[in-house]
Structures are given as C-alpha cells and as structure tokens.
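User: I'm new to structure prediction. If I give you an amino acid sequence, what do you actually give back? Let's try with this one:
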Amino acid sequence: MITNILAKFMDERTLNHRLQSTSTAGIATAVGAILGFEYRFLVQHIWSWDLFSVAIGFLVIKMSMMAWYRFRG
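Assistant: Good question. You get back a string of structure tokens that encode the predicted 3D arrangement of the chain. For your 73 residues, that looks like this:
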C-alpha cells in the first residue's frame, strides 16, 4: 500500500535527479574545502587541518568508490 503511494511521487527520474544533485553537492563541498585549505595555507600561512582532513577524506572515498564500481561492474 505504501509503495503504491510512493510510486505516484517518485519515479526513476526523481531518483536520478536526487543522485546527481547529491553527487554535485559532495563535489562542490570538497572543492570548497580544498580551496579554503589552499587559501589559508598560501595567504595566511596557516595549516588548517580540519579542511585538509575533509579534502583528503573526499579524495579517498571518491577514488575507492570509483575503483569499487570499476572492478565490481
């Protein structure tokens, strides 16, 4: 019963748009963290470890997921 109600509001296009928007938001956040780290390091000469950890975390997750889908698919 609940799946019939949800099927009226969500279809493949909705899920694809959600997937694409989530991916874009993650990449934009990671790029912002990298740029923020570079700005603080190059202009202010401060190591911002929190931004560095966000950037490295994104890179590790992104590369591991790319490898996972490449070798599993």
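You can read the tokens as a compact description of the fold. Here is one thing that stands out. The chain is about 85% helix and 0% strand.
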